[in-house]
Structure prediction request, 221 residues.
Amino acid sequence: MEGFKAAIFDADGTIIDSMYVWEKVDRDFLTERGIAITQEYSDAVRGMFFKTAAEYTKNKYGFDESIEDIMQIWLDMARHEYESNVRSKPFVREYLEYLRQKNIRIGLATSSDPYLLEPVLKHNRLQEYFDAVCYTSEVGRNKRFPDVYIMTAEKLGVAPESCIVFEDIPEGIEGADKAGMYTIAVYDRASEKYIDHLKRKAKKYIFDFSEMLGEDFNGQE
Prediction:
């Protein structure tokens, strides 16, 4: 890899092992209301803005709760897991430390909510590594679009073409590619069925961050 000056990471499913939380929240929320979760629903809300997912859920099932109430219920259900039980994925800390030693700028581009992200980063002692954090809610478009990646690069003070992006979902790889960034797909159980697609679309595919340790940023891949 040559000329890369910044690494931008997704949070959920990429550096933190958290996708089970949303599966649990979705299942528990619907089950409490006498509704069985379907794959159709899971696929529909995956990658949506949080508010958009709440709007979709309310409209689909006709719940009495307001969109704001649904969002708060979800957040409260998830927060306990995020601040107490969610762990970083294998070799994440080691790789972030390696990047720091190489003077590579480090950013986070996420669709998560600060109410959840801040405690999980603190719990796993990861917050100190990030020079910039950007949320899709700041740019108003999801990860199929390049906006959140471009904003993160701007905050890092690095040109988009000098950034590597790590993502676990096809939408993230698509958006980062549109931003002109070098894309690396990361394995996650929740996106396992998209492995072949991710391998085709991303420049590189890894199963964990041990595969990135020792990467020479000054050499030619």
User: Anything to note?
Assistant: The radius of gyration is 17 Å.
